[in-house]
Amino acid sequence: MKKHDETRRAFLIGTAAGAVTGAGITSHALAQTQRETADAPTTTAQAHGHGGHGAFLNNEDAATVTAFAERLMPGAPGKPGARDAGVLNYIDLALAGAYSDLQDFYRRGLASLEAYCRKTHDASFVKLGPAKQDEVIAALEQGKDTGFTWPSAQAFFNTVRTHTMEGMFADPIYGGNKNFAGWRLIGFPGAQPLFSPADLDSKDAFTGAPIIGLQAQAQARRS
After folding, report:
1. What confidence score (pLDDT) does residue 53 get?
2. Which pLDDT band, with edges at 50, 70 and 90, does 29 fall under?
3. In whole angstroms, what is the distance from residue 147 CA to residue 153 CA?
4. Which end of the chain lies in a sparser environment, N or C, as judged by fewer CB atoms within 10 Å?
């Protein structure tokens, strides 16, 4: 993994560690529907599958979102990235549900991104190499991409980065964090009810615990 990728991963993982343990990574919109989702016999996220799309995103937009998220959270041998964690699935489901008000935001943002890449690099975003993709993403972050009106380049970057973080580290019941990939990265065991205050202060308390998500809790309540 290149140094640039390692730095980006370290930043996101460090940010997520504090947000997850502070229960801040689950978005407000998704948290509002947490109870009914957890109690459902078969969740939308499960039915849709962790690796795909089709709830909202078409094939072209899904490929762009996948590539974009992977550059934000790149994978490496033994280190899952956005693709491994099913971030695309999370974003697709969210846009068809809790984030449906952002559908036009994504459509316009992705169209502006595509137009910028073709004008600047004579290729779509997914056809660019990792270095060029990083260059484009940096231009968005700094507001230097031309052609963006609404959403602005920075607003689009910030939103996709936030949703990538959520897809990596929110509870798997929402369609991302496949096989607890994000939680394993930061040593978070999920919604554990048995840790004492002393355990919570210990860096070693979570190492031997099974990871528990909302779906497991819902199944336990029904049994």
Report:
1. 85
2. very low
3. 9
4. C
Query: E-assigned strands of 122-194?
Result: none
For helices 103-121 and 59-72, the axis angle rounded to 10 degrees is 80
Cα–Cα nearest to 190, from 203, 174, 209:
209
The residues, ordered by sequence, that sit 6+ positions from 77 with a Cβ below 8 Å of its Cβ are none
Rounded to the nearest angstrom, the gap between the alpha carbon of residue 40 and the centroid of all alpha carbons in its chain is 23
- Judging by beta carbons within 10 Å of its beta carbon (0-12, 13-18, 19+), is residue 132 exposed, middle or buried? middle
Mean pLDDT of 180-196: 78
Choose among 39, 35, 152, 33: nearest CA to 93. Answer: 33
Three-state secondary structure call for residue 98:
coil
Give CA–CA dist 52/62, Å, rounded: 9
Q: Would you mind telling me the total number of residues written for the chain in this entry?
A: 223
Q: Which amino acid is at 130?
A: P
Tokens 């929402």 belong to which residue? 174
Angle at 167 between CA 163 and CA 169, to 5 degrees: 115
Cα separation, 90 vs 173, in Å, equals 9
Task: DSSP letter for 16, please.
Answer: H
